[in-house]
Amino acid sequence: MSDRFSRLPPAAPFWMSVLMLPLVALAAMRGGLWWLLLPGYAWYLTMALDGVLGLNEQNPAPDIATGRLFWHRAVTIIWFPLQFAAIFGTIWYVTQSGHLSGLEKLGLFFGIGVLSGTIGIVYAHELLHQKSPLERWLGDLLLASVLYSHFRSEHLLVHHAWVGTPRDAVSARYNEGFYRFFRRVMRDCPRSAWRAETRMLARAGRGPWDRRNPFWRYAGLQLGMLALALILGGTQGLLLFVFQAFGAIWQLELTNYVEHYGLTRRHLGDGRYEHIMPRHSWNAGHTASNWLLINLQRHSDHHYKPDRRFPLLQTYGADEAPQLPMGYPAMTFVAMVPPLWRRRMNPRVRAWRRRFYPGISDWSAYDKGDLPLPRNAP
C-alpha cells in the first residue's frame, strides 16, 4: 500500500461506500446513463484500484478494544438511514417527477440494487454478528429492505455451524454452476432457516407460531417496506422496490457462491465433521475491495472467529487458507460464466485437496452432497 494511503486515519478507507449516495441523487436527477456511475464505482473502479494497490497482508492486533473502533463501527451504524433514504426517496422522486423513461428507471434501480447488495447486505452481515441490540436491529432493517430477512437465521444458525457440510445450502459444490446453485439456495434456504428457528423454540417448549419466532418480525418488517414503496410510488414504486431487492439478493448469492466454492470439511464418520478451519473459506487480501466490503474477503478468519469485528479480521497465507486470484467484484463476474469459472477455479480446488487432504482419494460423495447430514443439525 502506498505511503499516501497509509497516512489516512485507519477507518477512512472503509467509508468509501458513502460516496455512492451522491451518485444515486445525480443519477436520479440527470437520467440517461448516469446510473452507470453506481456499478462503475462499486465494481469497476474497485477492481482497478485492486490492480494498482495489490494485496494488503498486514494484520491488526486482534485484541483492540471495541471503544477504539468507533469510526469503523459508525459507517455500519449510519448506513441503514442512508440506504433507506436512497431507496424510498428515489421511489418517491422518480414516480412524482415523471422525467425518466421506464428504461431509465430500471437502470437507476439496478444501480440502487448495487448499493443495497454490494454494501447494504455486507453491512447487515457485520451488524447481525454483534451482541448490541441496536446493531442487530439495524441489520434486520437492512435485510428487510431487500426482502431477505431469513438470511439472519440461516446465516447465524446454519451456515456458521455447518459450512462445508451437506447441511449448508450456501456451500457451493465442486463443479456446481452458479445458476444451479442460485435456484437451490432460493428453494432451500428459507425453509432451512424456518427449521432452525422452530427447533430452537421446541427446545424451549414453545411451538413454531410462538411470538418469539423471529419470522414474525421478518414478515412485519418486509410487509412494512413493501407497503411504504406502494404508498410512495404506487404499483410502479412497488415493482421498482422489488427489482432492486432482487438485484441485491443476486449479488449476495454470487458472493456466497464464491466464498466457499468446492471447499468441504472432512467427514469423520457417523455424521461427524472436523472443526471449521481457515482452509474452509476462500481468502482474498485485495486492498480496495476489502475497503469497500469491510474486510469480508478475509472470510477465512471470519469463519474461524465469527465474533471478531471487521477491522480486526486477519488475513492468511496460502499455507493456511486457499487464495482467490482476484477480489470479490471480479470473481463474481467470472462466476456468472460457468465454463470460465470452472476453468479458473477447479484447478485451485484440486490443488487445495492435494495440499490439505492428500489421504482422501474419492471425492464423489463430497461433490454430490451425498455425505450424511451432521449429527444434531436442525
UniProtKB/TrEMBL annotation:
Pfam families: FA_desaturase
InterPro entries: AlkB/XylM, FA_desaturase_dom
Membrane-topology annotation of the record: Multi-pass membrane protein
Major subcellular site: membrane
Subcellular compartments: Cell inner membrane
Keyword annotations of the record: Cell inner membrane, Cell membrane, Iron, Membrane, Metal-binding, Monooxygenase, Oxidoreductase, Transmembrane, Transmembrane helix
Segments traversing the membrane: 12-28, 74-94, 106-124, 215-232
Top-rank taxon, per record: Bacteria
Fatty acid desaturase domain: residues covered: 108-333
Stored PANTHER family: ALKANE 1-MONOOXYGENASE 1
Family listed: Belongs to the fatty acid desaturase type 1 family. AlkB subfamily.
Protein name according to UniProt: Alkane 1-monooxygenase
Organism of this sequence: Paracoccus marinaquae
Lineage: Bacteria, Pseudomonadati, Pseudomonadota, Alphaproteobacteria, Rhodobacterales
